[in-house]
Amino acid sequence: MSAARFTVSFGGLSHARAFEVMDLLENDLRLDPLAVSINETDEAKALWETVAWFALLEEADAARVVMALPYSVVSAVPERDWVRESLAGLGPVSAGRFHLHGSHDRGVHPSGIVLEIDAGTAFGTGHHGTTWGCLAALDDIVKRRRPRRILDLGTGTGVLGLAAAKHLKRPVLATDIDPVAVKVAIDNAKRNGALPWFKGCTAAGLHHPSISTAAPFDLIFANILARPLASLAPGLAKMLSAGGQLILSGLTVDQLRWIKACYVNQGLVVERVIRSGNWIALVMGRKALGGTASKRKSPALSFKAAGLGYLQDA
Ligand code: SAH
Hints:
The protein is α/β, with parallel strands linked by helices and 314 residues long.
């Protein structure tokens, strides 16, 4: 690792003296620091230091000589790749068969349905409990069914719709109120080879002819927030086919009862509740015509993904 910067620090100063030294460093025409700061080094003794950054070692040395203060140290500051370090916090995520990673972690997932999605201007890398819960719900649903028509309302990066499109190879309509998110989702569809099944459009809620034309849907994702989920309940329920499932998220544990009630009032049944931290993904189903449909009891499942959540039967 190369040293990109050099600092000279002057310690053992009072607060006022640290400011004076900062002024001197900034205003001495012989010196050209990149930046100067002051830091408290010993709260109990009220001691401060002044630190100046330079591009060259000789400049830092020169500043030390010019200032001629008793406690001064010149150090090399190792170069840091800030982009890489911040992305390191966004490691790969898995929910059942679905595996997500950023481009900095390419190749980490050898099998399964792998999606590459970078953090950027749209929401949805899989690290948030709501996204993870929806993917876990999808993983569970596709064990039993292969939905034919899919709506991803509030698509963000496209993550949920892309997971479904990649696995099912069936058409997904992805919508978002934010045109930037729609563009990001389409770019992600290209990057992940899902474009043939993936269509995006900018729409607030269900207000777009593409949505009504493509309805009814066998699977709908709506990971937005509790309040819009509550007002969208009649419209979303109408667009769900018999035997279809609605994966709702963006609600917290204390909002579960409210949102459940909104959709039960539309004739839907609770199929599963998935919790991740304080976030809930709620799977609601519409009974298939003439049958007891998709409400079934399955053993309690647990997903070990990024240390997140658990899955429970409704
Ligand atoms: N589906 C992604 C993103 C969820 S974030 C995931 O699961 O990670 C919620 C997204 O919903 C945001 O991109 C936001 O712009 C969008 N959104 C919020 N309210 C909306 C509305 N009324 N209609 C459509 N999209 C909405």
